[in-house]
Amino acid sequence: MKKVKDFYKADYPQELFIRNILAECVENFITKYMYPYVGSKKRVLDVGCGKQPFRPILEELGFHYFGLDYKQNSDGTVDIVTPIDVEFIHQYPQIENFDFVICKEVLEHVANWDMAFKNISKLLKNNGLVLITCPHIYQLHEEPYDFWRPTPYSIKNFAQKYDFEIVELVQAGSGWDVLGTILTNYSFYIKSHKLKDRIIFRFFRYAHQWLIKNISNNHLQEKFGIHTSLYLSNLAILKSK
Predict the structure, then answer these.
(1) Could you give the CA distance from residue 60 to residue 81 in angstroms, rounded to a whole number?
(2) What is the pLDDT of residue 101?
(3) What is the chain's Cα-based Rg?
(4) What's residue 89's pLDDT?
(5) β-strand 98-104 against 43-47: which pairing, if any?
(6) N or C: which terminus of the chain carries fewer CB neighbours within 10 A?
(7) Low-confidence ranges of the chain (pLDDT < 50)
(8) For position 129, what pLDDT does the model report?
């Protein structure tokens, strides 16, 4: 059986650390909450599905997969083409009553959280589960539709407002992941023409590349700890009532 990380890989260096974390989060969600229903044809909705990296593994496990996104993808495989934060469910009565919803790295791009949570609550069956992830420290992306870097408290607030039970609420990604993400977002250039400065610059650039490589392959994490309150992503698992 293939793993989520086989389907969900970084397209750019800046995505490397958060993609690894998210692959692990989705893998844990599938293993812990969905595996008991393998082969059951239970219905899964992937909100903000894009190229649908999770579709192969979920269908292989016997789930009935649906994808929702604000635009059609290049393969024409998005089942429901609509933003999640507008009224749309009455147009698609067949899509209600999902057992699971995956909403990964979507809500930072959604302006109207009230409508998004309202729709997700309607889409889920009673006792259905939704996995939500949102970046906490991350560069601007998919501009100009990048609105929020939510905290766990904002997710908890909207979950309680729309009568979800909070099953898990996790701050994902270590300080090393934060540092790696920050470093991949920097590139350096030299302004001085002095030989001494150029030598220092070459050493500095090498150190920058060395740090990224050794954080990404976990060599530094195996040898050194790091203390920080910073983390990379929020993860929540909510249950509808």
Answers:
(1) 24
(2) 97
(3) 20
(4) 84
(5) parallel
(6) N
(7) none
(8) 98
Distances (CA, A) of 64 to 60, 159, 163: 10, 25, 26
CA dihedral over 172, 180, 154, 7, signed as positive or negative? negative
The pLDDT score that the predictor gives to residue 2 is 67
How far is it, in rounded angstroms, from Cα 28 to Cα 22? 10
Report if pTM > 0.90. Answer: yes
According to CATH, the topology of domain 4-174+227-240 is Rossmann fold (3.40.50)
How far is 234 from 152, CA to CA, in rounded Å? 6
Would you list the domain boundaries of the chain?
4-174+227-240, 177-223
Q: Among positive and negative, which fits the CA dihedral 43, 135, 25, 217?
A: positive
